[in-house]
Design a protein that fits this description.
single chain, mainly alpha, Rossmann fold, three-stranded parallel sheet, globular, transferase
Length: about 400
């Protein structure tokens, strides 16, 4: 047994760290984006690697490039849209989003190329950045959309974010839950039967089987006792017991059931199934058609200026993925750009090694204030989540045992 294999791996991660031979993602990337518990026996699935050493996401992109008939897929899109199209002036679809490049592209192309009448809905960021708020308003005013901006109970959301950071090192978990719920929930509320998200996360390494169907897996909406639902790693019943809240306060986080969605005729689709999805091309389209603007400076932890720039907390989400899985934001960005032919692997390796471990200092004070932690408490929490098979400590501090080459 090698030294690495003998080291404990948290979260059910593979002990042996491997990097994709085509892009730069590692086999430590989780295939779930909602919750990872800090329990060593909690086995969680990670991105798959084939015998050739290439990850599932890269293999699917080869499928996209060479084996999918995109004209046939677009015909399927038109047929789906026609099924739900209304001619009485009412909304015929819901498009969830923040006004970032992806949702700006999705809503605009559906309305102006395919003639739909979408209602855009937004689960508010924790803390808007200046450029994020500007792009959100441009999306509505220049892109030309109706919008509902839903902002959850701020006091509760801060608590849930704090709990998620402390218990899961996943400060985005409550936001991700709300973001996924907002589309179907608003569809039910307004009697709309079609919800269209942009890309399926399976494109980037979640369950690859989901790439081959246009609709969202309804297991997320399976019926459950709301009091037993976990937010921030804690049961709602326990949060109600320990803090001054009632079950009613949690209504925005409790998903509609698959049965209720089926009864209402609601279907949740991904535009990326029907049209070839390329984040950089979405950016160009959004700039040209909705007034979207990149940031004036790159995002800490990566080289990009235009991805996920609306929330001050967002960069800490990627920092925590670095801590838990050894994968930072530059890895995610450069891996998808290799797959889409924007850069080559050698360039990606350089970018990862230069930026991936950069600490997001820019909004650090805002983040600490938001979740009510001191600098010392922040680092004490972070260090508890470093898996021994990924990190080693010396007099010079913490360092990753494995970096992409």
């Amino acid at each position: 047994m090698s030294e690495t294999e003998a080291l404990e791996a948290f979260y059910g991660l593979p002990n042996e760290v491997r990097f994709c031979k085509s892009c730069v993602i590692s086999n430590q990337r989780p295939s779930s984006t909602v919750e990872f518990k800090h329990e060593k026996e909690d086995k969680k699935k990670t991105i798959g690697f084939a015998a050739d050493g290439i990850c599932d996401a890269c293999h699917y992109h080869q499928e996209k490039a060479h084996r999918i008939d995109w004209k046939k897929r677009e015909d399927q899109l038109v047929a789906t849209l026609d099924k739900f199209r209304r001619n009485d002036g009412s909304y015929d679809m819901i498009v969830p989003g923040s006004g970032g490049k992806d949702s700006a592209y999705t809503s605009h192309i559906l309305k102006y190329r395919y003639g739909m009448n979408p209602l855009t809905v937004t689960w508010a960021p924790h803390l808007y950045t200046d450029i994020g708020w500007q792009n959100f308003t441009n999306w509505i005013h220049e892109g030309g959309h109706d919008n509902i901006l839903f902002t959850p109970n701020g006091r509760l959301h801060r608590l849930l974010t704090r709990l998620a950071f402390k218990n899961l090192l996943h400060p985005f978990q409550p936001f991700i839950v709300g973001q996924r719920i907002i589309g179907p929930a608003m569809a039910q509320k307004y009697g709309v039967q079609l919800v269209m998200y942009g890309e399926n996360q399976a494109e980037y390494g979640n369950d690859p089987n989901e790439n081959f169907k246009p609709t969202m897996d309804t297991k997320f909406f399976s019926a459950q006792d709301p009091m037993q639902m976990r937010l921030g790693g804690v049961k709602i019943a326990d949060i109600i017991r320990d803090y001054d809240y009632t079950l009613n306060d949690f209504a925005p986080y409790i998903p509609p059931t698959a049965e209720s969605l089926e009864k209402a005729g609601v279907e949740v689709h991904y535009l990326g199934f029907y049209l070839p999805w390329d984040p950089q091309e979405c950016y160009y389209y959004a700039v040209e058609n909705t007034g979207f603007q990149a940031n004036s400076e790159r995002t800490p932890g990566t080289y990009s200026k235009y991805s996920s720039i609306d929330d001050k907390i967002d960069m800490f989400h990627y920092f925590t993925t670095l801590i838990k899985f050894g994968i930072g934001r530059a890895t995610y960005d450069s891996a998808q750009e290799v797959r889409n032919g924007k850069i080559n692997r050698e360039e990606a390796v350089h970018l990862v090694r230069k930026y991936d471990q950069e600490f997001p200092q820019r909004y650090y004070a805002d983040f600490l204030d938001y979740i009510g932690l001191s600098d010392a408490e922040f680092w004490e929490t972070v260090d508890q989540f470093r898996s021994p098979h990924l990190w080693q400590h010396s007099d010079n501090g913490w360092a990753l045992r494995h970096v992409v080459e």
